Amino acid sequence: MWSPANPKFRFVFLGMLCFMTFGSYWCYDIPGALQHRFETPPWNMTQGAFNWLYNIYSFMNIVIVLFGGYFIDVIGLRIGSVIFCVLIGIGQLIVSAGASMTNYWVMFAGRAVFSLGGESLSVAQSAYCSKWFGGKELALSFGITLSFARIGSFANLNLTPSLANWQGVPFAVWFGTITCAVSIILTVFAAISDRVRDNAIAAKIDVTDEKPKIPFSPKDIIHFPLSLWLIYFICVLYYIGVFLLISLAGTNYFIYQYGISSPTTILSIPYIMSAAMAPFCGFAVDKVGKKTFMACPHFGCHYWRICSVDIWPTYRIRTWCSCTNHCHDYDWI
């Protein structure tokens, strides 16, 4: 059970994968959890300055994720995952130092470094899932890792404001650095376990029977099928609608629109609903299939939420539509 060569060890390995992105998901929304505090003394951030803490992450990852996936293909999954996780930890460390110095530009630089590993680490996590959980366990493994990542986002939005009230904003930001350190440790363990497993498999297989691997070339992108490009386009539209409210406009929107003093609990509803339902839907995808069919209700609910966010009571509309929030991450597996 505790040997990476044991087939049952994959469940222990899945636990490592869950923690691999836990720190990055926790730290990504720290600015959103503390937005109201960042806009008051001694920070006095403007809305534009605050938005750039997220914009720099998005702009960097428009290109970096593509090269990150290629980087993993070239140097290997194990080394790549550790490098990306360390970059996240270094970035969050710089952000925490900026919070202690009350220096916006240091925090901005930290978010830039943080972005170098953020989404690329998720690519590495998905590659691990595909390698260890092929066939009828793949969607379930995606669902479980996604669930744990959403727990990290949910915990951040609910605990970070309390930590800031207790010990101040710098302490709350530094706490995120601790979660990144945990992720780095578990990522290293995952890389070691994967190496041991590969060595055990190689010892049982005749090397001469292995098929030569075809190296990836950037030119292969032009051969991607149209259906794959449509999936990319759908995900872009989805993220625009969902994370615009959660990350950028969320806190102030619910404060000024509804007069809610602590809106982070409401903003975390999509995350906790996703965490609860993702494993079950992943299991359903493995057993039933019909991935595209299962995605249709999700997009319908998402459209209804956008149209009626000012009509229905806040908790009701966000809870109902959050039931399908998780589908975009794995319904195309």
Question: Please, could you describe this protein's structure?
Answer:
The chain is built from 14 helices and no strands. It has helices at residues 9-20, 22-28, 30-33, 35-38, 47-75, 77-101, 104-132, 138-167, 169-204, 226-258, 264-267, 269-288, 291-308, 314-322. Mean pLDDT is 78; it is low at 311-320 and 326-333. The chain is mostly helical and 333 residues long. The protein starts with 8 loop residues before the first helix and ends in an 11-residue tail after the last helix.
Strand content: under 5%
Low-confidence stretches: 311-320, 326-333
- What Rg is obtained from the alpha carbons, in whole angstroms? 20 Å
- Measured between the Cα atoms of the first and last residue, the distance is 28 Å
What is the count of β-strands? 0
Number of helices: 14
> Which assembly state applies to the chains in this document?
single chain
Query: What about the largest sheet?
Result: none
Mean pLDDT: 78
The 3D shape can be described as: globular
Which bin fits the share of residues in helices?
Answer: over 70%
Q: H/E order of the elements?
A: HHHHHHHHHHHHHH
Alpha-beta content class: mainly alpha
